[in-house]
Amino acid sequence: MSTVTELDPSDFTFTRRTWIDADPVDVYGLVSDVAGISRWSPNASDVAFDEGSGPEAGAWFSGRNRRDGKEWTTRSQVVKAEPGAVFAFVVDGIVEWSWTFQAHDRGTAAEQSWRLLRMDPVLGGTRADVEALRDYMAASAETTLTALADWVTRNPLARRAPRQD
């Protein structure tokens, strides 16, 4: 039986998509304001940039996460911050979360991706553990995307006037 450190991280990735009734720049603004993620994510809370930092490449932030009755704090670093296009960050040097935004049908096609950068015992001890974590995070991403799209629909002042195509 392989140990988790012998597994290939590229086997454990996913991307989920949704359409959001807002301009890509506005959706980017919501997602890159990491303090707001707890509005949509079922797992994250108390997320905040380090003092003096913001949504720019190289910036650091911390957040509390929860799963299966456990809570822990993570440290993340923004690796891409292109307004209206992409916002990505690496969590504890283990996983990269990325969001991409493209104009589509007077709104935004938003994608949220999860990619393991390296295997680590914190992910679990077996392939089945890591697969279960990936599947859990994929379901969480779907929940987050749906909640974000619904929140934007219920809070029209959170977005600017529609684009002129």
Automatic annotation (TrEMBL):
Q: Which InterPro entries match?
A: Polyketide_cyclase/dehydratase (IPR019587), START-like_dom_sf (IPR023393)
A UniProt-annotated Pfam family: Polyketide_cyc2
Under the heading SUPFAM superfamilies, the entry gives: Bet v1-like
Protein name according to UniProt: SRPBCC family protein
